Amino acid sequence: HPNVKCYVAHGGLLGLSEGVSAGVPLVIVPFFGDQFHNAASAEARGVAIVLEWSKFNAQTLQTALDKVLNDPT
């Protein structure tokens, strides 16, 4: 949908593919299986910010969202 500005996801392959296909920035919080590899690949390609589940809280999410929504780099 054109109103989607960011996709927060766990990093599963299907959701990751949809986010990349839609061209929206991703905030990924992996916690199981292939999600870690998928998240690292997306981050290396510059389409995602990855947050660690063990450090995930309101502040880390807010910082990540602020970066993807307001930082043009």
From TrEMBL:
GO MF term set: UDP-glycosyltransferase activity
**Which keywords does this Swiss-Prot/TrEMBL entry list?**
Glycosyltransferase, Transferase
InterPro entries in UniProt: UDP-glycosyltransferase, UDP_glucos_trans
User: What family name appears in the similarity comment?
Assistant: Belongs to the UDP-glycosyltransferase family.
Any idea what this protein is called? Glucuronosyltransferase
- Origin species, per record, is Bracon brevicornis
